[in-house]
Design goal:
2 helices, 32% strand
C-alpha cells in the first residue's frame, strides 16, 4: 500500500507518494508507480469497487451528441480508444 497525498492551495496542487514529490520522481519511479496503480485499478474492478466504465471515462471522448425533446435530455458519447 502506498500513501498518496494531494496538497491543494489557491495557487497550485502538489502530490506526494510515500513522502516523495511526484514531480521529482525519475522515469523509473514514475513507471513503477504507474504499474502499481494499474494493478490496483484491475484489483478494484475485479472486487466491484470500480467499474470498467470508470476506466473508459478517463479518456477524452471523440464525440458527444445531445438531444433535447419533450423536456427530456439524452446523449450519446463516443470514445475512440
Amino acid at each position: 500500500m502506498k500513501k498518496i497525498i494531494q496538497h491543494s492551495t489557491c495557487m497550485d496542487d502538489s502530490w506526494t507518494v510515500d513522502g516523495k514529490d511526484l514531480r521529482e520522481m525519475n522515469k523509473t519511479e514514475t513507471d513503477n508507480f504507474l504499474q502499481y496503480l494499474l494493478i490496483k485499478v484491475q484489483d478494484h474492478i475485479s472486487e466491484g469497487s470500480l467499474f470498467v466504465t470508470d476506466l473508459i471515462k478517463l479518456f477524452q471522448y471523440a464525440e458527444l451528441d445531445i438531444c433535447e425533446q419533450c423536456g427530456h435530455t439524452s446523449s450519446n458519447t463516443t470514445w475512440e480508444v
